[in-house]
Design a protein that fits this description.
Elements: H1 2-28, E1 33-35, E2 54-60, H2 68-82, E3 88-95, H3 99-110, E4 118-123, H4 125-135, E5 146-153, E6 159-160, E7 162-165, E8 169-171, E9 174-175, H5 179-209
Parallel strand pairs: 2-3, 3-4
Antiparallel strand pairs: 1-6, 2-5, 5-6, 5-9, 7-8
Helix pairs in contact: 1-5, 2-5
C-alpha cells in the first residue's frame, strides 16, 4: 500500500499536472494580443518598468479607500497565487497626492502576504489618462481616474486578453469587484501566459544545448 502511494505521488501527480497545463495551452493557444506596445511607466517612476515583466496593471484612482476591497480581492485571488514567479509584478497607477493612503493600504496588504511585487506609481491626471488610453480598451476611467478593471501586460508590453470571451466577446481586463471573474477567468489566463513563457524558456534552453 505504501509503495503504491509513493508511486502515485512520484509519477501520477506530476503527469496529471503536466497534462493540465499542456491541455490549457493547447485548448486556448496563446493568450491573444489585444493591444501591442502599451506605454511604459518607467518615465513616471525609474524604479518600475513594464518591459520584460509579466504585469498586472491597475488604476486605483484618487479614492484609495474606495478601491481597498478591490485591492484585497486581487491580492487574495491572484497575487498570492502567482507572486513567486520570476518576472511577475503588480503595478498600480495612482494620482499624485495619494502617497499616505497608499502607504496605509500597502501596510494592510503586507499583513496578508509579502508585498515586494506590489508597485505603486504616482502620476499626474494627464499622465494617467495617457497611459490608460494607450491600452485602447472599450472601458474608461471614472472621475477619480480609477477603474475596478485590471489588465495583463506581457514582457513586450502587449495587452493580453480574450477575443472570444463567452460573455463579452473581446475581454480586455478583469473586474476586481467580482471574485468570480478573478477565479474563473483571470486565474486561467494567468496560467496560460505563464505556461507560454515557461515553454518558450524550455525551448530556448533546448536549442542552446544542441
Amino acid at each position: 500500500m505504501k509503495k503504491t502511494l509513493v508511486l502515485v505521488v512520484l509519477f501520477i501527480f506530476p503527469l496529471v499536472a503536466y497534462l493540465f497545463f499542456a491541455s490549457g495551452v493547447n485548448n486556448f493557444g496563446k493568450l491573444p494580443v489585444l493591444t501591442p506596445q502599451v506605454d511604459n511607466v518607467v518615465h513616471l517612476d525609474k524604479s518600475v518598468t513594464l518591459q520584460n515583466k509579466i504585469t498586472i496593471l491597475g488604476f486605483l484612482g484618487s479614492n484609495v479607500e474606495k478601491r481597498k476591497g478591490n485591492a484585497f480581492n486581487l491580492n487574495q485571488k491572484i497575487y498570492k497565487r502567482f507572486h513567486e514567479f520570476n518576472d511577475f509584478q503588480l503595478v498600480m497607477v495612482v494620482p499624485i497626492g495619494q502617497e499616505e493612503d497608499v502607504k496605509k493600504l500597502k501596510t494592510e496588504l503586507g499583513q496578508l502576504s509579502p508585498v515586494d511585487k506590489w508597485n505603486f506609481v504616482f502620476a499626474s491626471p494627464d499622465e494617467i489618462q495617457s497611459l490608460f488610453d494607450s491600452l485602447k480598451t472599450n472601458t474608461s476611467l471614472d472621475a477619480q481616474l480609477g477603474t475596478p478593471q485590471v489588465f495583463i501586460i506581457d514582457k513586450d508590453r502587449n495587452l493580453r486578453g480574450r477575443d472570444d470571451d463567452e460573455d463579452l466577446g473581446t475581454k480586455y481586463g478583469f473586474n476586481t469587484t467580482s471574485v468570480a471573474d478573478l477565479n474563473n477567468k483571470m486565474e486561467d489566463d494567468m496560467k496560460i501566459i505563464l505556461a507560454e513563457y515557461r515553454l518558450a524558456l524550455k525551448k530556448n534552453n533546448a536549442d542552446r544545448s544542441k
